[in-house]
Amino acid sequence: MPLIAVLPGDGIGPEVTSQARRVLEALDLGLQFEEAPVGGAAYLVAGRPLPPDTLALAKRANAVLFGAIGDPRFEALERQLRPEAALLGLRRELGLFANLRPATLFPGLEDASPLKPEVVANLDIVIVRELTGDVYFGEKGRRTNVEGSARAST
Question: From CA 12, how far away is CA 38, in angstroms rounded?
Answer without folding.
Answer: 13
